[in-house]
Amino acid sequence: KDLIVSLDADTTFGDRYFEAIHNIFQENPMAVGLSVPYYHNLTNDEIIDRAILRYEIYMRYYSLNLWRINSPYNFTALGSAIVVPVWAYKSVEGLSPKQGGEDFYFLQKLRNFGELLNYLPEKVHPAARLSNRVAFGTGPALIKGTNNNWNSYPIYNSVFFDEILETYNNLDKLYVKDIQTPLIKFINNNSKNNVWDLLRKNYPDKEKFVKACHEKINALRILQYLKYRHNLSENISDENKLIDFFKKYFEDECYIFNDKLTHFSFENENIKNLDKMRNFLFIKEEQLQKGNLLAKNGIFVNN
C-alpha cells in the first residue's frame, strides 16, 4: 500500500503536499492512481511566459471539453504529477518503455484498470523550461512555442468533441447493431475487422460492452480522431475556436475579459490577460475535479 510519487527535480510544491496525497488515498483506498492538478508559475521572461500560458490554455481547454462530454479519460498527463499505489503499479505491470509520452500511456493503462483520481487540494508547479530531451511534452512544446510554432498543439474545434459525445450517447444502440457516427466511421476505416462485432462477442453483458467500447475509444484514439478532424476542417483560427467555446459554455461569465474576446490574439495579447484566461480555465477545471470526487464519495454540493 506504499505510494509512488513522481516528480521532476525542478517541480515545486507546498509543505502539505505529501500529507494531502496520504489523506486522499486514505479516503479513496481503491483508487489506482492520482493525476495531480498542476499550475505553472510564471518566470518573468515574457517569451517563456507567453509560451507556457498558451500551452496551459491549450491543455485546460482540451481537458474541459473532455469533462464536458463526460469522457473517462479526462486526465492531464504530466510525469511530474503522478501518484500510484505499489499494488496498482504491479497490477498493470508498471510503466511501458516509450520514446516519449510514457506518462500518458501509463495513466491510460491505470484508468482502464480502475478509478483514477484527478483532484487534490494541493497543486504541483512544474517548471516552465525549454527541453528537447523527449519528442513531446512541455519542454518541446515550449521550444516550438517560443518560435511561434503551435501546429502540434492546436485548439481543436469543440464540435469535434460533440462528435465523440454522439458516439458515447449511442453505445447502447451499438450494443445491438452497427451504427454510423463520425467517430465510429473513423475507427472502422482504421481497423481490419469489425471492432464492434468482436466486442459484442467477447462482452455479451451490456455494461461490460460499454466499458470495452470506452477502452477502444481511449485517450490515444480520442487524440488521433481530433487530429484527423482538425486536418480535414475548415480554416478557423485558434483564437476564434477558443472565443466560440467561451461564448457557448461560459456566456454569463465572459464579462471578466471585457472586450478582449472580440479582439483576442495569442500573439498580441499581453501576459496579464493571457494569465487571466489561464486562471479562469484553471478554476473551472478545479471545480469539476472537486465536484466529481465529492460525488463519488456521496457528497453533493452546488457550485
Can you tell me about this structure?
It is a single chain. The chain is mainly alpha-helical. It is built from 13 helices and six strands. It has helices at 17-27, 46-68, 86-91, 102-113, 138-146, 158-168, 171-176, 182-189, 195-202, 206-216, 219-232, 238-249, 271-296; strands spanning 3-6, 12-13, 33-35, 82-85, 116-117, 124-125. The chain has a four-stranded mixed sheet with strand order 1-4-3-5. The longest helix has 26 residues, at 271-296. It is globular, with a radius of gyration of 20 Å. The chain starts with a strand and ends in a 7-residue tail after the last helix. The model is unreliable at 299-303 (pLDDT under 50).
Write the layout of secondary structure elements.
Elements: E1 3-6, E2 12-13, H1 17-27, E3 33-35, H2 46-68, E4 82-85, H3 86-91, H4 102-113, E5 116-117, E6 124-125, H5 138-146, H6 158-168, H7 171-176, H8 182-189, H9 195-202, H10 206-216, H11 219-232, H12 238-249, H13 271-296
Parallel strand pairs: 3-5
Antiparallel strand pairs: 1-4, 2-6, 3-4
